[in-house]
Design brief:
Layout (H helix, E strand, L loop, with lengths): L7 E2 L7 H17 L5 E9 L4 E6 L3 E6 L5 E5 L6 E4 L2 H10 L1
Parallel strand pairs: 1-2
Antiparallel strand pairs: 2-3, 3-4, 4-5, 5-6
Protein backbone atom coordinates (compact mmCIF):
# COMPACT_ATOMS: atom_id res chain seq x y z
CA UNK A 1 0.00 0.00 0.00
CA UNK A 2 1.38 3.39 -0.96
CA UNK A 3 0.52 6.57 0.84
CA UNK A 4 0.95 10.18 -0.13
CA UNK A 5 1.00 13.37 1.86
CA UNK A 6 -1.00 16.47 1.13
CA UNK A 7 0.91 19.71 0.69
CA UNK A 8 -0.55 23.19 1.09
CA UNK A 9 0.60 25.46 -1.74
CA UNK A 10 0.95 29.25 -1.81
CA UNK A 11 1.18 29.85 1.94
CA UNK A 12 4.23 30.94 3.86
CA UNK A 13 5.26 29.78 7.32
CA UNK A 14 3.00 32.42 8.86
CA UNK A 15 -0.58 32.36 7.67
CA UNK A 16 -2.70 35.50 7.72
CA UNK A 17 -6.06 35.40 9.52
CA UNK A 18 -8.14 35.51 6.32
CA UNK A 19 -6.13 32.70 4.74
CA UNK A 20 -6.44 30.54 7.87
CA UNK A 21 -10.17 31.25 8.15
CA UNK A 22 -10.69 30.48 4.45
CA UNK A 23 -8.79 27.21 4.66
CA UNK A 24 -10.77 26.24 7.78
CA UNK A 25 -14.00 27.00 5.89
CA UNK A 26 -12.85 24.84 2.98
CA UNK A 27 -12.01 21.90 5.23
CA UNK A 28 -15.33 22.23 7.09
CA UNK A 29 -17.19 22.18 3.77
CA UNK A 30 -15.14 19.19 2.60
CA UNK A 31 -16.05 17.32 5.79
CA UNK A 32 -19.74 18.24 5.54
CA UNK A 33 -20.35 17.92 1.81
CA UNK A 34 -17.82 15.67 0.11
CA UNK A 35 -15.63 13.78 2.57
CA UNK A 36 -14.08 10.81 0.85
CA UNK A 37 -13.68 12.56 -2.52
CA UNK A 38 -10.07 12.40 -3.65
CA UNK A 39 -8.07 15.62 -3.40
CA UNK A 40 -5.75 16.48 -6.29
CA UNK A 41 -2.02 16.13 -5.61
CA UNK A 42 -1.51 19.89 -5.72
CA UNK A 43 -5.07 20.53 -4.64
CA UNK A 44 -4.84 22.49 -1.38
CA UNK A 45 -3.59 26.04 -1.27
CA UNK A 46 -3.90 29.76 -1.57
CA UNK A 47 -3.97 31.74 -4.81
CA UNK A 48 -2.41 35.16 -4.11
CA UNK A 49 -3.75 36.52 -7.42
CA UNK A 50 -7.41 35.78 -6.64
CA UNK A 51 -7.36 35.79 -2.84
CA UNK A 52 -8.95 32.33 -2.69
CA UNK A 53 -7.95 29.44 -0.49
CA UNK A 54 -9.05 26.19 -2.07
CA UNK A 55 -9.29 22.43 -2.04
CA UNK A 56 -9.31 21.04 -5.59
CA UNK A 57 -11.00 17.66 -5.93
CA UNK A 58 -10.23 14.99 -8.51
CA UNK A 59 -13.88 15.09 -9.65
CA UNK A 60 -13.40 18.61 -11.10
CA UNK A 61 -14.93 20.67 -8.29
CA UNK A 62 -12.90 23.06 -6.15
CA UNK A 63 -14.03 24.25 -2.75
CA UNK A 64 -13.04 27.92 -2.45
CA UNK A 65 -13.16 30.69 0.13
CA UNK A 66 -12.14 34.25 -0.67
CA UNK A 67 -10.57 36.08 2.25
CA UNK A 68 -12.27 33.83 4.81
CA UNK A 69 -15.79 34.28 3.48
CA UNK A 70 -18.37 31.53 2.97
CA UNK A 71 -17.30 28.77 0.61
CA UNK A 72 -18.20 28.54 -3.04
CA UNK A 73 -17.85 25.54 -5.31
CA UNK A 74 -15.94 26.17 -8.53
CA UNK A 75 -15.92 24.35 -11.83
CA UNK A 76 -13.33 25.43 -14.39
CA UNK A 77 -13.64 24.76 -18.10
CA UNK A 78 -10.01 24.06 -18.99
CA UNK A 79 -10.74 24.39 -22.71
CA UNK A 80 -11.75 28.07 -22.53
CA UNK A 81 -10.73 29.11 -18.98
CA UNK A 82 -14.30 29.92 -17.91
CA UNK A 83 -14.89 29.63 -14.17
CA UNK A 84 -18.38 29.12 -12.76
CA UNK A 85 -19.09 29.38 -9.03
CA UNK A 86 -21.94 27.57 -7.26
CA UNK A 87 -23.40 28.10 -3.81
CA UNK A 88 -23.75 24.39 -3.07
CA UNK A 89 -21.76 21.25 -3.75
CA UNK A 90 -24.88 19.60 -5.14
CA UNK A 91 -25.35 22.37 -7.72
CA UNK A 92 -21.71 21.97 -8.82
CA UNK A 93 -22.16 18.20 -9.10
CA UNK A 94 -25.26 18.67 -11.25
CA UNK A 95 -23.38 21.08 -13.52
CA UNK A 96 -20.61 18.51 -13.98
CA UNK A 97 -23.13 15.86 -15.01
CA UNK A 98 -24.71 18.23 -17.54
CA UNK A 99 -21.34 19.21 -19.05
Amino acid sequence: MTTSNLTIYGLSESIAYCEAKGLANCFAAYAADCAGEDIMESGIGFNANSGYTYIALENGISICSMMGRDVEYLITNFDNGEEIFYDTYEAAEEALVEA
